Request: fold
Amino acid sequence: MQTLQIDGNNARKLYPSASAEFKTMLEDSFGKSFFSLKITDRVQSVEDALSIIGKKLSDVISCNDRKDVAAYKVMTEVIAVLNEEWEADYSNSNQVKYEPRFYDYGSRLVFGSVNVWSSASNVGSRLCYRSPDILRHGVKILEKYYSDFLNK
Amino acid sequence: MKKFKSFKDILAAAGITAEQFAEQIQNHTTDEIGYKKVKLIAKVLNGKWVPDYKDDDQWKYEPIFYHNGTEFVFRDVYRWISRSYVGSRLCFKSREIAEYAATTFIAEYREFLS
Reply:
């Protein structure tokens, strides 16, 4: 007899298209609530986000990267995970994109508000979010990286 | 303002050779390369000017782009004193320079934004 081993990340990928019988097997193994967790529950840190795509921080940044470049790389990876299957499509003016706006707070730029766009952008497709809630979650767990990216 | 026709001119003004820049962007994705280019463009065009978000009298200018269905094109310049979308490395010291950067180096901005 052969044994099939599936880790949590792969189980989540398989679950939506699994047959009813296989879904039951997955739920028995991982627990039903495992498959109902939202991305914002599953990702509480940069490390959580990277682990979903099978990466570690050292896979994303190199020691030669300046802090803003390293931050940019980490932010784009984490935001892609938080956005899940969603991708910004600027040719689609019906698709709303959310970008954070930062305010000066004691000489440092920190998150201040959410801006809504359909076909305009300051920062491009990799730094926008699919919803305001996910944006707020993203800027919270990426606080250090936004600071490194925005502030000198 | 000194005019630059291409990113090669920006590299020359920054004292960086094409070979050195190619080395800097090894293993980078297109948007990461675009970010580095746009950052260098802002640095060269701003000269000695440094954005200071503590300074309530200093305006900072940021270009904004819109997608016309095919590609990003320059739309306008926003000016802020103590707010930003892009941070200290990608803002400009004047509206004129922000607009000049966003139109002259639109190819580099597209690499970053797309």
Summary: DSSP finds eight helices and three strands in chain A.
